[in-house]
Amino acid sequence: PYTGPSASEILEKRKEYLSPSILHLYKNPLNLVDGKMQYLYDENGRRYLDAFGGIATVCCGHCHPDVVEAIVNQTRRLQHSTVLYLHHAIADFAEALAAKLPGDLKVVFFTNSGTEANELALMMARLYTGFHDIISLRNGYHGNAAGTMGVTAQSNFKFNVVQTGVHHALNPDQYRGVFGSDGVKYARDVQDIIDYGTCGRVAGLIAEAIQGVGGIMELAPGYLPAVYNCIRKAGGLCIADEVQSGFARIGSHFWGFEAHDVVPDIVTMAKGIGNGIPIGAVVTTPEIAKVLMGRTYFNTFGGNPACTAGALAVLKVIEKEKLQENAFVVGSHLKECLTSLKEKHEIIGDVRGRGLMLGVELVTDRQLKTPAKAEILHIMEQMRELGVLIGKGGFHGNVFRITPPLCFTKEDADFLVGAMDYTMSKM
Ligand code: PMP
């Protein structure tokens, strides 16, 4: 049993010693002390079904024994910086990761986070092309350092950041966007930005295939191929931010971009890659990778032995336990159930996403699409009481984000839907 400080004691310390801007879910935040696969346990030993997976960071399940074993064994033997010496764990994972990517995407750079991965990707695109302008999508999230906060396009996450050479394109938002699901029409905005907002040449584009923080918004079909075309004609590189949509989560494919039939020039990843431990990566072609030669690009801990040993175990678990297939089967079932719930409850405006990356947008008026901001908070609190943890996001904070560990079962999905249905019925 847990004998540490209580939730209220931790909260007191947090108020005094931690950033005032940290956010937490729930009026009385949960004090989580244990995790096992798709379950989390609080200080009283109460079990919760985890449908948010720590913002999609947990892919093969909390404390998966194979991953824990790999990390512990490596840490017992040696844990040090990534640079300066050789270590097989780093090379082994780079090789295994490169094998998961198409085409010539074969050179891996390790980082500690998604932010760092995207910062590096943006810098490489600028160095490689010799141009400065970057296009990203409104409603996208890419990180919290100078460059990535600049390309992030939601005021909620932006401070007074300098963002020269950044252009935010019309979001191909299939629910609220002016062109509905016609991806090619939205893509014209990118061509307009290039024609009217730049010298006609750009460094590149950065985009998520399914916007995570932005409320599980899958880019309209046809958008990415058309936009990749415009960017490449303007001399730019295409960066796929797979921090949330990568690593088997979408079920139909291993990477989010694959569902859009494109091959990026640079792919960035983090979160699920380490099943909860800090590691990120940039994968690109040998030709683009060369831009970092001649100077030293240095990252003390990016891809250190303990993290890469753990991440290699993650890849093996995904294969061994057929987690991509599971994400497809369970995710499709869950999406169907949520879609039927929409027939029953007026408050559900939209159900979307793929595999185990699903979104449920709540509105108080289906015609006006008025965000149901207060209602979503109420439902989240009630679902927590019923033992289900779920995320939320979107610009208005009115979209449920369902991104559980990929070991989620059909029974788990039914339990989640039951809890949501019950709560909505009681409102
Ligand atoms: N890209 C995407 C798509 C993300 O969702 C996030 C994190 N929410 C990041 C980048 C930044 O990752 P990190 O928080 O690890 O820096």
From TrEMBL:
- Annotated keywords: Photorespiration, Pyridoxal phosphate
What PROSITE patterns does this protein map onto? Answer: AA_TRANSFER_CLASS_3
Cofactor(s) needed by this chain:
pyridoxal 5'-phosphate
Listed under catalytic activity are:
glyoxylate + L-alanine = glycine + pyruvate
InterPro entries given for it?
Answer: Aminotrans_3, Aminotrans_3_PPA_site, PyrdxlP-dep_Trfase, PyrdxlP-dep_Trfase_major, PyrdxlP-dep_Trfase_small
**Signal peptide (from-to):** none
Family that this chain belongs to = Belongs to the class-III pyridoxal-phosphate-dependent aminotransferase family.
Give the protein's recorded name: alanine--glyoxylate transaminase
Q: Quote the gene name from the UniProt entry.
A: LOC108996966
